[in-house]
Amino acid sequence: MSNSVKQIKIKTGACKRLYKEKNYYEMEATKQENKIKELRNKNTDQYTINKQEEILQETRSMIPDCTNRLQNYYEGLVELVENERDNEVVNQTTQYKDALEIIEEVKHLFD
């Protein structure tokens, strides 16, 4: 496996993981918001609500960091794929095709 293919595989894996992680944090924040609403509707004590709000803030604080890391890997992957576009040995590999798929999946976040 050439160095370019290895780099494509690494950056593709990182993009997939970070995209999944970002989506997870967003989903978790939504769940936490709903939980806090439920607690307020049940007139739960303020201490419990405050603790749940702290958890929500921690979850929300992870989203920008995760997005920044995803953007860095995404941009690196796009650049690498563009550089290897004319290399027939590389652009025929499954790693290259996987990279194109994740680029297509993630690009709406940054374009």
TrEMBL record:
Compartment annotation: Cytoplasm, Cytoskeleton
Taxonomy, superkingdom: Eukaryota
**Record flagged with keyword Transferase:** no
Do the record's keywords include Cytoplasm?
yes
Classification via InterPro entries: TBCA (IPR004226), TBCA_sf (IPR036126)
Q: Which Gene3D superfamilies match?
A: 1.20.58.90
> Pfam families this protein is in?
TBCA
- Alphabetical keyword list: Chaperone, Cytoplasm, Cytoskeleton, Microtubule
Give the similarity note: Belongs to the TBCA family.
Q: How does it assemble?
A: Supercomplex made of cofactors A to E. Cofactors A and D function by capturing and stabilizing tubulin in a quasi-native conformation. Cofactor E binds to the cofactor D-tubulin complex; interaction with cofactor C then causes the release of tubulin polypeptides that are committed to the native state.
- Name of the protein: Tubulin-specific chaperone A
Q: Which organism is it from?
A: Anaeramoeba flamelloides
**Highest lineage ranks of the organism?**
Eukaryota, Metamonada, Anaeramoebidae, Anaeramoeba
